[in-house]
Design a protein that fits this description.
mainly alpha, two-stranded antiparallel ribbon, 8 helices, about 220 residues
Amino acid sequence: MIFHLSLLFASKRNISFNLNKLVIFFISILVIFMLSDYLYNTINRMKKEYIMTNNTENISRHVRWITVCGLFMAINIALSSIGVPVPGGHFYLNDIIIVAAALYLNPLGAFLVGGVGAFLGDFFFYPAPMFVSLVTHGLEAAAISYIARLGHHKLSSIITGGIIGAIIMVIGYSIGRAYIYSTPEYAIIKLPMEILQAGIGVVFGIILYRYAPLYQVIQKVLQEK
């Protein structure tokens, strides 16, 4: 009887804990969207009222950059928290948005979206690999952004950056899984899934960057005078 009561109490406590994390998760995404929207609308209002100076023009560019980073980070947090069940674990789609964001943004913005976004997603739902996600996805995104910019966003440089980023992602998570939050044996078992996830992220991330209508919208926001 006592054993059953303890199990029931533990189950209720676990449900309550998960609900609390869900609430915090959605509040954080809402805050990111609201802050980005507020900053962007404030700058637009200043422009309409003709009170922009050289200094505030620079601030405007930074605000637009923060707005785009906030948008991609919120999407990354959401996708980091949603795993598609597959044999041996879960498959995550956040690599797609990490690759696309890295191609839109500079290396710093890419690191923030990829690393911090994945870190927060793990923090809310599965904290064990959150620091591995911060470093791995951050470096992955920064490398993609840097290599693509180095080649002036030609398709060859984009593909090269994507491949390098995928390698960083696979190696980073394999090392992290082997020595930080799991075992070497499990890291080997998960290796094919990591390679598949990284590959899908690169392919669909590049497609999203080059062919989705989002490209024109993001470029207009970032380059707007």
